[in-house]
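Efflux transporter, RND family, MFP subunit
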Amino acid sequence: MGVLIGLAGCSPDPESVAKKNAAALRVTPVKTVAVAPTEVQRTTLQPASVHAYYRAELRAKISGFVRELKADIGDYVEAGAELATIDVPEMQKQREVIEARIQRLVAEEQRAQAGIDLASARVRASEAQLAEAKSKLSSAEASLAASSAEFNRTEDLVQRGSLQNRMLDEVRLKRDSELASKEAVTSSVQSAEAEVAVAQSQVASAKADRDAARAETEITRRQLDELDVLLSYAVIRAPFAGVITDRFVQPGDLVRESSEVGSGKPLFVLSQIDKVRVRIPVPESDASLVNPGDEVTLTFPSFTAEAPITASVTRRSGSLDPSTRTMMVEAEIANPDGKLLPGMFGQASIHLATKAAANMLPARAIRFEESGNAYVYVVGQDETVSIAPITMGMDDGNSIEVLSGVEAGQRVIDAHLSRFTNGQKVSVLAN
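Structure:
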């Protein structure tokens, strides 16, 4: 019994043993990592959507019935290919009427030209008569001059008594007759000049009639050209090479001009997909950092087994959408096999040209509350833990930028399965 009592007195106190064991358990060995300022390539990860390089909704320019369809959904068509024809018989009749009107106007031109020729002939005849009258006038003037000279000579001889007065009277009568002849011829010249003036006026009038007929013919021809342009719209053609992605018309359908009320859906939707546009809405915080030429890495859920697609920023809109506060960025991608379809969604990682010095931590060192807020376990100089809520920035998948909550040089607990509390002691293992 005494031995047993002695042994019992030498055994340790169970309560003190439990305290020592609990203390030993509370000091958890951990590894730490330091918050390190690092120059990083900034990236922005955003949703992306595929769009046709060009997409056109083809509508009718004229109203009529669909006579024939030459393309359907999924067909590849070249630029200028006929897709459908619209029957417009009333326009064909209008064209026949205008053609007949042009023929009538051409006949009027020919009649006006004939009037010009006739008036020109009259001018030539009048001019010939005028020339003849002027010639007679010259002859009459010469005869009058001769008669006047003879009269003067005879009068002188009579005054001298060499001739009788009877001879002077005869010469006077002859002179007066020649004077009368001259006056008659002068009247003929004036009449011929008037005839020439009238004929020339007739020529000018006939030319005016011809010019008016030509102008009317030209106007009618232009009306025919305008109608031909409208008739050309009866054939729906592809404005560029692409694929018919929608068709909303059947043979025999009545289609209306696009400007009319009730014109409804387009006849066809044509998309160019041998090259596509990938559109990426970039948030306001990164919009000013994106520039044409920045590298873009694209992934699509439809091609999980394939390597990401690398492209470059082709253009940026340069303004923010007021409703989303994002700027649209486009990247053009060759799509010769048609694998990328308009409407596909994916993710785009844009590698911004700007590099920045950031406080980075491994992603594994950051914890999250149930509410989604991030925090880290900061280890002080005395190896005491303090919980520090943080604000995160960029995330490249391995490291995460810490915007606030910790400072460069501070050490935090690396990946660990245990949860820690403020003031808890830890044992920092050598790295």
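The chain has five helices and 22 strands.
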